[in-house]
Amino acid sequence: MQDDAGKELLSIVASINKRTAQALVGYLALFRPAKQDLSATRAVKLAHEVLALTENVAALGHAMEQTTNSIMAKRVGQPNIKPLANHNYLKQVLTTSLEQIVQPTAAQRSRSMEVKRQGLEMSEQQNHQAYLEQMSRYGAKVNKEDK
What we know:
By secondary structure, the protein is an all-alpha fold. The chain has a domain at 2-98. It is built from six helices and no strands. Helix 1 crosses helix 2 and helix 2 (18-29) packs parallel to helix 4. The longest helix is centred in the last third of the chain and has 23 residues, at 88-110.
């Protein structure tokens, strides 16, 4: 059973990019009990839980790095280190990371040259004007009086 779990863990780590895999291994170490190794079965379960948090693997890797670094910094000099019990801290870091990724995208959209009007109701006159503008962009000669 333990050998199968070890193979599955290696398969999981091999299936993701190097940076995320390194972050995952470091993150899983936070769950290791003080006086024993983390079992491969538990590591596989934790890895599946973590990878199910988001499809954005890059953001997940970054969040795991931040989480690991933050918790390791807090643990320095502490005699009784308790292993993590859940993924709540990682979820908070991941949520913040994903929000930071989405915000610039929304800001970029607001600065775009043309706002798409698809699906908006336009009057006949507005529709005709939009047609004329589009045709002139394509270089077609149009008579502005024609409807």
